Amino acid sequence: MAATALVNIGTLVTNDATLGNGTLGVIENAALIFEGEQITWVGPATEAPIADQRIDLAGRAVLPGFVDSHAHLMFAGDRSAEFAARMAGSPYHAGGIRSTVAMTRAASDAQLQENLTRLVNELYSTGITTFETKSGYGLTVADESRALAIASTITPETTYLGAHVVPAEFADDPAGYVDLVTHEMLTACAPHAKWIDVFCDRGAFDGDQARAILRAGIDQGLMARVHANQLQAGPGIQVAVEMNAASADHCTHLTDTDIELLAGSNTVATLLPGAEFATRSPYPDARRLLDAGATVAIATDCNPGSSYTTSMPFCIAVAVRDMHLTPDEAVWSATLGGARALRRTDVGRLTVGARADILALNAPSHVHLAYRPGVDLTHQVWVGGRAHRVAS
Ligand SMILES: [Zn+2]
Predict the structure, then answer these.
(1) pLDDT at position 320 over 60
(2) How far does the centroid of ligand 1 lie from the alpha carbon of residue 288, in Å?
(3) How far is the CA of 278 from the centre of ligand 1 (A)?
(4) 175 CA distance to ligand 1 centroid (A)?
(5) Is the dihedral of CA 211, 214, 217, 218 positive or negative?
């Protein structure tokens, strides 16, 4: 198999502290070699072995491709009018999801596929090389299972979110909807899903409903993740930790107990800066989580209602500016943090044996991701060793 060497890397983020400086394991004047889908060598350029092909990066920064552990890409239509109304003073509430549900049910398979492909191309262009996507805008057996069947053709990280919100037709019978989600809908969706998720919050599902939904999914071989504490402090974090969820997502409103639970668990706290940004909500106190020792990930939460961004650099910039992460912490959270939130060990790092998911920036350092907000800094992205974006 042909070996490709990336040489003349100004700063290489490996996310392995034993290989370089700081938590990010930064190597200056570095080289990296990959063969097929795997990285076979990293280190100082002066020590690099000969490879079949050489790509000179002219001092650019290189880092692991971003791992986006939370996105909702299976939908149709948009909600720009709702966004405009919200920016003019209307509050955000979970019920807005229902308008996307109506548009998604009305869309053809080809329209869903086309929208997904468009969004995935955007994700790759911003440097995201692993992404999760959820169902949750179908909310019928047929619509949820077709969303997951389509999604599973493009990512292994598919999440069954039949428990996104109670659909209008079950407004008077939420228990009936939980029964559908935990039985017939689950049976139809489980073959196409790796994860099960529930929106445990005001206006969505309560703690007992969330436990029942996650338990049913776990019994079918799915792994748990939870939308927790976005709109208010509640039982979401406790449920996530109890069910050994890989991730509790949003974490906007946390009590001291929630923070202790997360810090003492195997559950990653996934922060979604785009959601607070686009709903003009208070940001979570990420410093409390980090100082307590919790593992923190950053994800896009790409969805048409409350965070319609595919840009991880944007999320990093907001996490640094408004959640008070350092640039190094934000980059770690968007790479290895995301990998932990998906319980993946092959991505989120640039070390021997990891997948060749690589982002080269038109900048000398990863700090520029936060320092130059709104600027497209992507020079080249490799996904499993294959160039996605051809360098200009
Ligand atoms: Zn979400």
Answers:
(1) yes
(2) 22
(3) 13
(4) 22
(5) negative
pLDDT tier, 251 (very low <50, low <70, confident <90, very high otherwise): very high
Q: If you ran DSSP here, which 8-state letter would residue 307 be given?
A: B
The token pair at 28 is 């200056």
Ligand 1 centroid to residue 303 C-alpha, Å:
7
Span from the CA of 67 to the centroid of ligand 1 (angstroms): 15
Check for a shared fold between 3-64+349-389 and 67-341: no
The domain covering 3-64+349-389 belongs, at the CATH homologous superfamily level, to: Urease, subunit C, domain 1 (2.30.40.10)
* Ligand 1 center–CA 8 separation, angstroms: 39
Q: What is the pLDDT of residue 92?
A: 67
Domain layout of the chain by residue ranges: 3-64+349-389, 67-341
Take residue 244 and report the two structure tokens written for it: 């050994």
Strands 386-389 and 378-383, bridge-based pairing: antiparallel
Q: How far is the CA of 355 from the centre of ligand 1 (A)?
A: 26
Q: Which fold has domain 67-341?
A: TIM Barrel (3.20.20)
Give 342 Cα–ligand 1 centroid separation in angstroms.
14
Dist. CA 52 → ligand 1 center (Å): 43
3-state secondary structure of 101: helix
53-107: per-residue pLDDT in tens? 999 999 999 999 999 999 999 999 999 999 998 899 887 665 678 889 999 999 9
Q: How many Å lie between the centroid of ligand 1 and the Cα of residue 18? A: 34
- Under 8 Å between Cβ of 300 and 307: yes
- Surrounding ion ligand 1 within 5 Å at CB are 301
Find, among 257, 248, 253, 205, the residue nearest to 228 by Cα. Answer: 248
- pLDDT tens sequence across 128-180: 999 999 999 999 999 999 999 999 999 999 999 999 999 999 999 999 999 99
- pTM greater than the 0.70 cutoff: yes
Residue 289 has pLDDT above 90, yes or no: yes
Tell me, rounded to whole angstroms, the distance of Cα 357 from its chain centroid. Answer: 15
- What distance lies between CA 364 and its chain's CA centroid? 25
Cα dihedral angle (321, 326, 327, 332), rounded to 10 degrees? -120
Task: Quote the radius of gyration of the chain (alpha carbons, Å).
Answer: 21
> In whole numbers, what is the pLDDT of the chain averaged over residues?
96
